[in-house]
Amino acid sequence: MQLTPPYPLPLLRAAHRGTDRGHELTVVAAIPQAHRAADIPRWVSGPVIGIGSLISVHDRATGRLVEDIHAAWITHATVERERQR
């Protein structure tokens, strides 16, 4: 079974909690213009740092923590080997 966006928040949360040591849930998110501050990029890609009702991602391109990402904005999600930061 292949899942397609939008990814349900409970599924993302389960994938994040269930990753083995040495692996991480990595996502790509498209941040809508109405929700972006001037210093937040349009696309965010990197490992999920935390999931509550919203998602926090460590953006690989900028090195910044981007918070308050909605599950509906996630365009791709995968579990992969953890990269050295």
Low-confidence stretches: none
User: What's the N-to-C terminus distance?
Assistant: 32 Å
Compute the number of helices: 1
The main β sheet shows up as:
5 strands, antiparallel
- Helical proportion? 10-25%
Output mean pLDDT. Answer: 89
The radius of gyration computed from the alpha-carbon positions, rounded to a whole number of angstroms, is 12 Å
Number of β-strand runs = 5
Can you write the helix and strand succession as a string?
Answer: HEEEEE
> Strand order across the biggest sheet?
4-3-2-1-5
Residue share in β-strands:
35-45%
Anisotropy-based shape:
globular
Structural class: mainly beta
Question: What would you note in describing this structure?
Answer:
- The protein is mainly beta and 85 residues long.
- 11% of the residues lie in helices and 40% in strands.
- It is built from 1 helix and 5 strands.
- Strands 4-3-2-1-5 form a 5-stranded antiparallel sheet.
- A hairpin with a 3-residue loop joins strand 2 and strand 3.
- It starts with 8 loop residues before the first helix and ends with a strand.
